[in-house]
Amino acid sequence: MQDDNVQHTQLRGNWHYPTEIIFGVGSLAELPNEVKRLGMRSPLFVTDSALVNFDFVTDTVDALRASGIETSVFSELKANPTGGNIDDGVAAYRQGGHDGVVVLGGGSALDVGKAIAFMVGQSLPIWSFEDVGDNWQ
Predict the structure, then answer these.
(1) Do the beta carbons of residue 8 and residue 43 sit within 8 Å?
(2) In whole angstroms, what separates CA 24 from the centre of its chain?
(3) Fewer C-beta within 10 Å: the chain N or C terminus?
(4) What's the mean pLDDT in 93-121?
(5) Which of 64, 9, 59, 6 is nearest to 32 (CA)?
(6) Could you give phi then psi for residue 45, rounded to 5 degrees?
(7) pLDDT above 80 (res 14)
């Protein structure tokens, strides 16, 4: 049963702390300008294998490319990502000569994308940064 007196709103907003996250209806159209604003010319586009072939993902990658942003897609990650997924993403980043990371998807893609962005600047394995046992010291 639908209540015609209920007003529906569309959630849209930006989150700026500590990094910028833009979400809501129409946000994907802003991506090419945001990528350029951040100085990226060739980001690695990270998404998960369940989403990679959906129109909204392929359309977003096409929009980046149409605006002159070279990108390749990395989607080889599991629903519960592994260290190997991150290693593979770092390898894809380096092999592609990328200069940033763009992530589209849910928690797994976000986790892997953040880890790739972090690890491309590291020489130690990712497990050196976990805080189990005495590693926090």
Answers:
(1) no
(2) 16
(3) N
(4) 95
(5) 64
(6) -95, 115
(7) no
